[in-house]
Specification:
The complex is a heterodimer of chains A (178) and B (632).
Chain A lengths: L4 E4 L3 H13 L4 E4 L2 H10 L4 E5 L10 H11 L4 E6 L10 H8 L6 E4 L4 H31 L5 H14 L12
Parallel strand pairs in A: 1-2, 1-3, 3-4, 4-5
Helix pairs in contact in A: 2-3, 5-6
Chain B lengths: L14 H5 L7 H14 L4 E7 L5 E6 L6 H8 L28 H4 E9 L6 E7 L17 E4 L10 E9 L5 H14 L10 E6 L5 E2 L9 E8 L4 E7 L9 E10 L9 E8 L3 H5 L5 E6 L2 E3 L12 H7 L11 E7 L20 H30 L1 H49 L8 H32 L2 E5 H14 L6 E6 L6 E5 H21 L5 E9 L5 E7 L27 H11 L3 E6 L5 E7 L5
Helix pairs in contact in B: 2-5, 9-10, 10-12, 12-13
Classes of the chains: A alpha/beta (178), B alpha+beta (632).
Amino acid sequence: MAGKVLIIDDDAAVLDSLLRTLHIAGIHCEGEAEPKRALERFRADPADVIVVDYVYDLHPDFTGVDLISEIRKLKPITRAILISGRIDHEGLPQEELQAELQGRIQCDAYFSKPVATDDLVEAIRSALSHVSNQATDWKSIASEYVKGSAVGPDDTRRMNETIKNNLIIPPTEEGPDA
Amino acid sequence: MTEEHVLRFEPSAYIQHLLGKELISNQWIAVAELVKNAYDAGARLVTITLHRGHPQRLHIKDDGQGMSLSEFKRIWMTPGYSEKPSARSADRPLLGEKGIGRFASDKLAADLTVITKQSRERAALQVIFHWGYFDDRSKSLSEIEIPYAHVNSDEFGQYESGTLLELTNLRTQWDLPAWKRLKRELQSLVSPFRTVRGFKIVAVADGWPSGEVVSLFQAYPGYKYAFSVTRGGRIARTLSRPPATAAVLHRQVEEKERSYYGTPPFGPISGSFYYLDKPTAAKKAGFEPGVAIYRDGFRVEPYGRESDDWLSVRSWKASRHGHAPISPPRLFGFIDISRNNNPDLRDLTNREGLIDNPSFQAFQQFVKEEFQRFAAIVEDEKARDETESPAYTAQRATEARTVKHATFSEIASQLAHQLRQPLQVIRSDADSIEALVANPVTIRDPRLADSIRSIKAAVRDINDHITLMQRMSASVAGQIITFDLATWLSERAEAARLQDPTHQISIRTEGCAEERNVVFSREVLAFVIDNFIGNALAACNASSDPPREIVIALSDGTEMDHLILVNDNGPGVPDNIRPRLFSHSVPSSTGGTGFGLKYSYDLISENGGAIGFHPRSPMGATFFVQFNDQEA
């Protein structure tokens, strides 16, 4: 399935392992351990789906939710999957993370570590299919424009939104600990 | 027809000395003034570096906005002008109001080189001041020529900004006590009672205690009285009994809100008094008794110093013939004011006090009355404690258990998070192996070997965590005993050699030839020293440059009875990790669990000791712990 996938986890062993496993499962993806470098990388080469760890030990004030938020400033339509080892004694995400998940950010999926490869692969494929559908939608409407066919106001609005959401917006502020 | 004439002041060059060298009373206040200037320039990090060669040099570098030539002329070269480059954060209040803080550099050194760069500029502006040129009283200030040039400086990267003050020909030689005093002064410069966001001070001197200057006032056992008055005159007061959590023991003092006798002429303020059961731990952490004033998070001198009795605590105690409930050495506290909210509370020109105007007098009177009220409450509470002694003792025991449980809960939570990382590796790689062996084509895929190696490493990681948990558990259960520290350290060194089966790392001890009996928890020290040694071994293993060496040294402490240092010549601690070495979970690229140092810090602090780090030149690290004998 076409589409770029970027994995961000500051634990090098976890990152290596996830990349290896996903490659074997047929997902072509790249990895980055540093959230700041991930932002720079995204700016230069935007991904369609990001798989983001929640806690970065070297950036205690910057979480995976912050990273998703920064990335979506660059490309609002980016699909995001959050993974975390911050789980309470009942197996639920810790209180702070629960609030984040219910609050400011919308994730396509959330997984507690250790996540099963099948579950992660399914979530990534599902996110990629949304990206693919949206791109197809945009292309077909644009093609109608080119052909000079009548295009209704709903189509125009949908296309405008799609273009806007896919736009790469120049950065306005620095990332974590810049 | 009358002819109009005008006169103009023509200040002598010597006025520069009057504003700097002669107005600032000591070198520590001078450094503090320059740090405050950096804060006003939008800096997020100020690094003070003492180069201890001969002659000594002092560098004060910030990452503020820097100045262009025109800004430098307008801001630096105009005494009494206090405009600062627009602060990075709109809510950062300016500390300087006199426009003379920069002349404090004259107190420190005869010569000053300023290198300042703005991010959009390629070259830096370099300006050289020889303060001796200002000795000539016959010359006017504007007749002294100050050379400048635009230079390419290695100090700032292409897109970086900031200002570096290079102070040479220092007026006083810095020795270890003076350096420690500077660290203490800087520690108290920024309020330990609340966090000043986005601003750090780092002090570095090769071979002397170095690192981030930050320390928060803990919930030491005792009484805490917090009060505030709003702009409209409403007063709120509460009393609590740290370290109890608010829910455990928290009593309102009188009614929640009372009206002031009108609108406070000094503006809204807040503050807290702490009367500690035992001041030892607070003093060991570097806090001096006294009620200090902080404006926008920065200390206003000399309030709260031993020499200053602005709340008349000592004279009041004397008037009660020593029977007052408050003993000054156990009293700590702060009053928060701000430049925006309390514009009438202004600095004296020498920055050693506030101007004694009607607003200040009303402010002082108000705080004195709050203090008297607090003293009366402490007296009542003490009486209550005595009459309710058994219940009180039981409650304090419960509170102590609550605090302990909270600490364990935090550790357990962190450990759980850390353990889930290698579990993720095992889970993912097991899935990889399963997928690869299921297919005859991939059964010899080299990624199989990668996955197996990865699983083995993850298992080692989990085992490290289990060992850490066992050592933590032992450290908590450890008893205070008398033992020979020298022999024990030699045993730790021998144990470390066993962890290096190839004998490529030289591990030796210093100062362990003679017996040294100490009274302390051996399990606590075992946790800390084994952690230091484990980190040193990991650092040496990460270094490709032989000879690799670890030295475990024992000596008398500079401030406490015993000092243990663990030196290694590995690659050293990366700059970005140093400031939070002991305060956060720090991932180790060379293995390890990542939060052994944080727990070591907590353990040693709980036992009244001190722990620290300084880099070694040209490479490597020194971790040290010092502590006093305890009561067995």
